[in-house]
## 1
Amino acid sequence: MRNLLDFDFDSAHIWHPYTSMTHSLPVFGVHSAKGCELELVDGRKLVDGTSSWWACVHGYGHPEIISAMEKQLHQLSHVMFGGITHAPAITLCKKLIAMTCEPLTKVFLCDSGSIAVEVAIKMALQYWQGQEKPQKQRILTVKKGYHGDTFAAMSVCDPEGGMHTMFGEAVTKQCFADAPKTLFGEALHPDDLAQMRGILSTQHNEIAAVIIEPIMQGAGGMRFYSPEYLLGLRKLCDEFNVLLILDEIATGFGRTGKLFAYEHADITPDILCLGKALTGGYISLAATLCTDKVAQGISQSPAGVFMHGPTFMGNPLACSAACASLDIINRNKWRSQVAAIEQQMRLELRDAIAIPSVKDVRVLGAVGVLEMVAPVDTALLQQQFVDLGVWVRPFANLIYIMPPYIITPMQLSQLTAAMKQVAARIPLAGDIAPTQATTSFISHG
């Protein structure tokens, strides 16, 4: 019965992410998933190179996560979090506080990564209200970033390529500095923080916080930058009395080779956003953590309470999945898994730099990137990857993989070979010559 999936209904009535209802893109029906493989309704199996948008780090069908969710489903699948607490939420928050850096002592559980960013921005604004500095309402960030799809999150996405450019005055105007130029593994360029310092020196009285994706700018371009930049940014925030928000929704729980990307720079944030891999990708859940100082400031604000409360906050089913996922992370196998993935991708993607359509090759932890000379035809390349037995979803001018940590060497080789094969088919547009190619083989140290 698998092949009876109603694709016509899907095309006519179901809105997929970033698609048009008048010019539909091809979709592929999935029947089941196990380990690192997706099984399509026609029986074909695809090696998943995306971890379902970077979340399913333990693969599909993990018995511990499923068992935890089944048990919780029969006991208590959902209950409001207002005036009520329960064991899964308490256990999860204990684990998060133990895993993250010492100053982070307060946990706000929410629905998704975008909402975690919304919560972080609200926390920053309310903190300064509690400090009797209500004029500090703006957020400073860097260009080429991505922090989510909701309105406050959009406002701190890239000001030129971000979605908020099409929503005009409905989106809050924020402050932007140039993206970090110093690559991971390089000594910090002397002027890399100059613009950030300039903005803070003249506008710190109205800036509540700086928000940034540590080490890796994800959906804004899969760019890896120097830990020294983060270290300098932390010092600037302290010097000019603004909060530092780190968005680890994509990088948290081992993706870059450290448990959290801020560990590359040995810094601590005032507010931390987590999501995606928090539940191992089994159900939506995110968290925003903050320090005692931030929590006290919010509690001293005119409202006297933090002004946010999602209906599904602290959902017991999601918390139980997250507890199981973090138990798996805490066994520390991810360290050797991610290191092995990084080493293999470095070796197998190395020669992709010789492909004319490839501008750059980058590897950090369990992230492998081919940056192309020009934007790619996502629909065309998606079909080519499926024909090669892999699930890789390009975007803009990037062909990248962020596979589950449990991927086998054979499966990973299938992914890297497909990346190079598809890239080699892409012609250069017109007579435009590729920019001088460089290869960034990043080590996690």
## 2
Amino acid sequence: MTRPVVDQDVPDMLGMQSTAARIIVGFYSLTYLMIAIVSREGIESFEPVLLAVLVVSLGAITLIRIPGDPLPLCPTLALTAIGPVASALVLGELPIPVENPMQTWPLSAATAIFAFMGVRGRAGFAWLGMASMMTTCAVWSALTGQGVAHGLAISVINVAPLLMATFFGLTIRPSAGAIFRLREQTTRRVAAEAADSAVLEERDRQLGRLDELARPLLERIGSGAELDEDERLACRLLEAHLRDLLRAPGLSDPAVDAAARAARGRRVEVIMLDDGALDGADEAARDRFLAAVAEELATVSDGAVTVRVLPPGRTSMATVLVNSEDGVRRMEFGHDGHPAATEISVQSER
């Protein structure tokens, strides 16, 4: 049975990769550097102590910089070794007896790192690092004639913070999964509500447009008066425009609509079809194509014009077929909105 994986954003939820976390790590490194400097009495060689400061500082940086949850194995092993390594570097340089309790600062510095290892899903390795650090203290104490008990006494007090951090990690990590699931559900719900709202807004817009276009003619028809030729033409043009909106919504554009209406007013048959390729086009390509369609409709004085947006996945995005007294002209448009090919067939004279 596989272990459930906690969401990758647990460190983000705790703010471990935020600017505030980086500032805290900076203060952490500066604090232990100052402690090492002010408690250097009796220490003959200070280089190992500075190396220990560098080790714990790099460990703190690793905690907030390495992504992934739980923490990847290689950084985890390196962090586990920080406690015994930093302790060995400093304890080996201390005078016996120790003149200043602050000189054992690597114990608290490593404990802080172990605590956050537990929060990041590596509690077992954190306890392994703590046990290794306590062993290092016990061995040092025994070798310097202070007794194993002394080494354990100065290091065992760090078990309490790690224990609290472990319980915190065990509490927060299972809750993190529920938090992320709730956040995902909220995101999906907001997206669905936004989509529904967009549909309603589009419906209201279309209804308002239909009311603006059709109401005057419907009221005129409803009055029972006989329509004159201009009004009947207006009805035919409106019917064709509404048909375009249903069959070719992607071609709905003020310039195209106006050009199609004017062409139909010249008795040109205009057919518009939309199979969806225009939906995936970028804005510039769409504008170029619609401008070309409007220009073509504006120049045709007789015959028929068929504008078809092809299905997605085709080599061409759309075609425009013009069948007039001058002949048949077929234009293909690429996905960039530019004409890709033009075929002209001149009708024979009768």
## 3
Amino acid sequence: MKAAGALRARSDLPVDDWLATLDALFTIPPGYRREDVDRAGALDILRCSDEVLTELVNAGLPHSGDGELFDRHDLFNLALYSKSGVSAAEMGIRFALRWMTRDPHTWFQPMRWNYSLTMTGPSGHGGEATFSVARPLPEAFGGQVERLDTTPGNRDAETPGPDVVVVTDGDTAQVDAVLRTVGEPRTLRSRRLREIVSEYSHGDYRWARMPEELQRHPELVLPHGVAPCISVSLDLAGKARAAGYPARTRRGWILGMLDLAHSWLEVTDDDGQVKIVDPIFAGLADHAGRAHPDFREACFGSALNRLLPTAHEADNGLYHHSRGGTSTVPKSTLTIRAVKELNAVKGEPL
């Protein structure tokens, strides 16, 4: 039986280039690692040859177990920066962010989305279970929740508050919604704020995937030149407040194929207007292929229609499950797909 991905194109990147990428890799530290991807799964993510993977293991790619189990975040980040051109990480990110290459007006026009979330809690426990998810809040950027339903049906879905709550005696909960998002071009005008955020806009840092628990400790990741969104948002908010600017972080999602959880900074500028500052979004443009030359600047001030905000701060989790006094983070499967773009512009997923 062929391993997963065996029929997909494999990278012909020289092993020395893979080893150079490994040498620069920020590996997930002990205490935050979850080594549960086997060798076949690793080959599917990296799309390198079996021989190259052996060389990477021999050179220090962290793993455990006789069957070689790897951390998924390590593999994703290694693939993303390999420049192989065919890894699952590179191709997935490039496809998902292709909208960054389009005309700037498409970043701000109204769009409508179908939102579908399934949350699954641990089984084997009786009694009533409570699931919650951070409530989609597109109205923070001028959008609207057109419809929101839960399964099983629950009146709490219509109750104002920071979360959608579903109470059930089962192990799963479903939240479905129709959302309308819109953006607005804005410019960060404060020279001092520009100086503060410039630290993350000159290429000295690079984005990487990692567990949320690790991202909540900027002191553990930022000194390594790694800039995940939660860590950067928390750091920038602290520096903006220290400079006298009202600021908050916000948690939400990047809309489209990936439906990635995301965080950014919102700060009151010299003109009294709240600006959205998202240097990590700007940095992701490097993985989008030929991003429009105006995109990076749009990330320093503008509200974009591909961001779905919630009321949560950056270091607040999006999902929660509790039963019998035990609280956990439920497994979640979120799908957000464009229904159509308004203003007579044809829409497509991301």
